[in-house]
Design a protein that fits this description.
Radius of gyration: 24 Å
Largest sheet: 4 strands, antiparallel
Number of strands: 52
CATH class of the largest domain: Mainly Beta
Helix content: under 10%
Low-confidence stretches: 69-75
CATH architecture of the largest domain: 7 Propeller
Number of domains: 3
Strand order of the largest sheet: 1-28-27-26
Distance between the termini: 25 Å
Strand content: over 45%
């Protein structure tokens, strides 16, 4: 995986660019110290000045109002908040009209962010205050007061908590009064930027100690980078939480969620003060200190299954390589590739407008159908069908392109679903509830209706990852899950008695997966790679279970 950088010869802004924000996958707005707001159209390569701000307004941060399904007033959805050095934030329409300016802080307003529902706005400033506002700009509360400037802020995935910087510390404060505050020392220098992803629930931070770090939502460190030559001035998660980008002086880096660096580019940009991902997660824009706006496309992603290796060579081109005979096929698409999945002898590719289904036996004639909404955020495959998740819902299709079902439940938010919280088998769809994380919804794949009598799977603790087994009869279908204590459990999908029999298989399990060909379960358990050859043993005799395990030190491969 790498980044393909695009940078104009001459900058469109006369001063440093402070912030950027995408409206669609092909349209971007940028704000600069030259007081101009410029619209970029990537399809036509045109730039248009939207508005010139008064000379006393220096923009600092920009965030578009979220395009949620429940918004009836589309005029609100077509607007953004702009924070500025004069202590105000401004609500500005897409056409550049300043709808409202609000006196918010003493000193500059350093950051402003809408929550995921668009019902509240948080701002932070040089005065050390964190304030919550209504979507019309009315002050609701002053959440906290620090003795030093707060440089960055982010909402938690449930919009019930706010993460903000306090010098070298990171603080998570719930909106509810008297709720417990989480605070920890995160860097050896002032923290300049934070981001909290709604899908993987992980936190990014960057500071003047020239490091970027990844944390879980409990403040536990997951990754700590080596020191760079210059302070890290920007970090941003991709929407699906699989990748993140890091910006510094003449530096743009692409990493996966574990912190592993895939690409390092050194464009002539000065410091990159702000990074924004496009809504489909395929492009990055950076606000540069020398007046440029840098664009980068994520290319050379790879998918593998048995003897096939598929590489995204360009935005609209894939290369298929059969490693057995070195045969190579090129797949051309009309639009930019957004998501892809390769499994069960089928390649499923979603572009901004269509879905392509290829069989590994014939790469020349794909099945093609139009998508209801362009931005597919997740593709899951089972042997008989596949699942697409976009901003509008969850859709199950056969490999012949026939629509099968679309499961729904109250309060469903498709923007936060990922491969750990949704699972698919030939007969069942399992989805973890976000409003109550102790519950798993179970649906019949063929109808999209809840299993049996509206069956829910309820656990005593919050659940973090779920997985359905893939083989066997419907009545024998099992689901394995890991809870927040890192305990692994297994239970039947169909309940034949009054009691749900949820049985613990192991402790300190970090991730799990079922085999595609038989119901063997594997997982990383503490420092060991563990395979449960026959997990159903726990229903017969728990004493036999240890005899069905295969264990190997997971650190062994690193030493050899």
């Amino acid at each position: 995986m790498r980044l393909k950088i695009s940078l104009l010869k001459e900058p469109k802004h006369q001063e440093l660019v402070s912030c950027v924000g995408w409206t669609t996958a092909e349209e971007l707005y940028s704000c600069s110290d030259d007081h101009q707001i410029v619209k970029w159209n990537l399809l036509t390569s045109e730039t248009t000045q939207i508005v010139k701000l008064p000379d006393d307004i220096y923009p600092i941060d920009l965030h578009w109002f979220p395009k949620s399904l429940g918004i009836k007033k589309q005029t609100q959805a077509e607007s953004f908040v702009l924070t500025s050095s004069d202590g105000k934030f401004h609500l500005i329409s897409k056409l550049g009209r300043v709808e409202k300016s609000v006196e918010a802080h003493c000193g500059a307003v350093l950051a402003g962010r809408w929550n995921y529902e668009g019902t509240a706005l948080v701002t932070v400033g040089e005065d050390g205050q964190i304030k919550i506002w209504s979507k019309t700009g009315m002050l609701r509360s002053t959440l906290a007061q620090q003795g030093a400037p707060v440089y960055s802020v982010a909402w938690g995935p449930d919009s019930e908590k706010v993460l903000y910087t306090a010098g070298k510390q990171l603080i998570i404060k719930p909106l509810q009064p008297n709720a417990r505050i989480l605070q920890w020392k995160a860097h050896d220098g002032i923290i300049l930027k934070v981001d909290w992803n709604s899908v993987n629930d992980l936190i990014l931070s960057a500071g003047e100690d020239c490091k970027y770090k990844v944390w879980d939502s409990y403040g536990r460190p997951l990754y700590n980078s080596q020191p760079h030559e210059h302070p890290i001035t920007s970090v941003a998660w991709a929407p699906d939480g699989e990748l993140f980008a890091v910006g510094s002086f003449h530096t743009l880096r692409l990493c996966d969620k574990t912190g592993w660096s895939y690409a390092l580019e050194k464009p002539n940009t000065g410091s990159i003060f702000n990074i924004a991902w496009s809504v489909d997660g395929t492009q990055i824009a950076g606000a540069c200190g020398n007046g440029h706006v840098v664009f980068a496309h994520v290319v050379e992603q790879r998918w593998e299954w048995k003897n096939f290796q598929i590489t995204l060579t360009k935005r609209r081109t894939m290369q298929v390589r059969n490693v057995l005979n070195d045969a190579v096929d090129l797949l051309e698409f009309r639009d930019r590739v957004i998501k892809a999945s390769l499994n069960y002898a089928h390649l499923v590719v979603s572009t901004s407008l269509q879905c392509y289904v290829f069989s590994t036996k014939n790469w020349n004639t794909p099945l093609i159908f139009d998508l209801k909404e362009g931005t597919v955020s997740l593709i899951l495959q089972a042997e008989r069908h596949f699942l697409l998740v976009d901003g509008g819902g969850i859709y199950l299709y056969s490999y012949e392109g026939r629509f099968i079902s679309s499961p729904k439940f109250p309060g469903m938010r498709t923007d936060i679903l990922n491969a750990q919280t949704v699972s698919l088998s030939n007969d069942t769809i399992a989805i973890k509830d976000k409003t109550d994380e102790k519950i798993i919804f179970l649906f019949e794949a063929s109808t999209g209706k809840p299993l049996g009598d509206g069956k829910l799977l309820s656990h005593k603790n919050e659940i973090s990852e779920i997985a359905l087994d893939q083989k066997g009869l419907t009545n024998d279908r099992k689901i394995a899950f890991i809870d927040k204590n890192r305990d692994l459990y297994i239970t039947s999908v169909k309940r034949f008695g009054k009691e749900e029999q949820i049985i613990k298989l192991g402790t300190m399990v970090h991730t799990l997966a079922w085999s595609d060909t038989c119901n063997i379960l594997c997982g990383l358990q503490d420092t060991r790679f563990t395979v449960w050859y026959y997990p159903n043993t726990v229903y017969v005799d728990r004493d036999i279970l240890p005899k069905t395990l295969y264990e190997r030190d997971a650190r062994w491969d690193l030493r050899t």
